[in-house]
Design brief:
The protein has a single domain (1-63), classed as Single Sheet (N-terminal domain of TfIIb). The chain is built from one helix and four strands; from the N terminus they run ββββα. The chain starts with 18 loop residues before the first strand and ends with a helix. With 63 residues, the protein is α+β, with helices and mostly antiparallel strands. The longest helix is centred in the C-terminal third of the chain and has 9 residues, at 54-62. It binds zinc ion.
Length: 63
């Protein structure tokens, strides 16, 4: 077994499991998880188990 965080997530970009998760709450109360890949430095948001592009969340915050 690799010594990787047991997040159950794999990177949406490179497929590795070295993904860190940071739980956050948007101003409107929506819970999202910020995900960042150690391997390729991809970043995305996870909302209700669905990957959301960073730009998509920014739109939500601005709304
Ligand atoms: Zn990656």
């Amino acid at each position: 077994m690799e010594n990787a965080p047991d997040t159950g997530l794999v990177c949406v970009s490179c497929g590795q499991s070295s993904v860190i998760q940071i739980e956050m709450e948007l101003p409107d109360g929506t819970e999202v998880v910020f995900c960042s890949c150690h391997v390729c430095e991809a970043r995305w948001w996870d909302k209700d188990g669905e990957a959301v592009a960073v730009d998509g969340i920014i739109d939500l915050v601005r709304d």
